[in-house]
Structure formats: C-alpha cells, structure tokens
Amino acid sequence: MTDRLYGGIDIAMKVPSHQYQATIAFYRDTIGLKEFIDKAPAIGFELGPNKLWIDEAPMMSQAEIWLELFTGDFDDAAAHLEKSGVVRCDTIEPLPEGFKGGWITSPANIIHMVREPEAW
C-alpha cells in the first residue's frame, strides 16, 4: 500500500452518441441528480461528495467509466506505478501542456487519471 495515491472526486462516464441524450435524461430526470455545467461540453451531476461527468464519445460503441486518483507528487506516483508494472495510456485523451498528471489503466482496463489536485 502506498500513501502516494488517494481517491479523487471526479468520475467520468464516456457515452456513445447514440446513448448520450438518454443517459443525461436518466441522471437528470429519472434519478433527479442536480445538474451543473462548469467543464462544457461535459455535463456534470452531483453524486454525493463526488462529481459525475458525462462526456459524449462518438468514437465509442459502449459506455466506459473513468476514475480519478490524486497524488501530492505526480512524478513520484508515476515512478511508483511504473515500478509496479502499471500501464500508462497518455494517448487516450490529450491533457494540457505542463499538466501534472497522466492516464493509466487498471488490469481490468478501467481508465484512471492520476493527477495533483491543483493540476486541473
């Protein structure tokens, strides 16, 4: 166990275009989650202490969940993950130049953003 990583607050759901509007309506109208938009074009919902972001992903055929992990030192965490054999997949979605974070995948192919909290 390492103290280098801890759970973040963001959960991203990448949804194919043919399911996007129905998914937004499900969380907003059926479930009744409070909607907010501060990272357009993604739609955000309050999910307890977390934020659920729903992104339209036209290139996908099925929905995926992406999770967030925080670290106080990305370089240290990245070295730990590499030493542990964790696969980096930074090409999955571009991040801003100089961003203190990156993308990894779990053995079950769940995408995780690992970042310093102030990086976003």
Structure, explained:
This protein has one domain: 2,3-Dihydroxybiphenyl 1,2-Dioxygenase, domain 1. It has helices at residues 17-30, 74-83; strands at residues 6-15, 35-36, 43-47, 50-56, 64-70, 87-88, 101-105, 111-115. The chain is globular and about 45 Å long. With 120 residues, the chain is of the alpha+beta class.
**Termini separation:** 26 Å
What topology, given as strand order, has the largest sheet?
2-3-4-1-5-8-7-6
Mean model confidence by pLDDT: 91
How many helical stretches?
A: 2
What portion of residues is helical? 10-25%
Instruction: Just name the CATH architecture.
Output: Roll
Tally of extended strands?
A: 8
- Using the coordinates above, name the CATH class: Alpha Beta
Q: How many structural units, i.e. domains? A: 1
Give a brief outline of the structure:
The chain has 120 residues and is of the alpha+beta class.
Offer a few descriptive terms.
about 120 residues, alpha+beta, 2,3-Dihydroxybiphenyl 1,2-Dioxygenase, domain 1, globular
Topology, pairings included?
Layout: E1 6-15, H1 17-30, E2 35-36, E3 43-47, E4 50-56, E5 64-70, H2 74-83, E6 87-88, E7 101-105, E8 111-115
Parallel strand pairs: 1-4, 5-8
Antiparallel strand pairs: 1-5, 2-3, 3-4, 6-7, 7-8
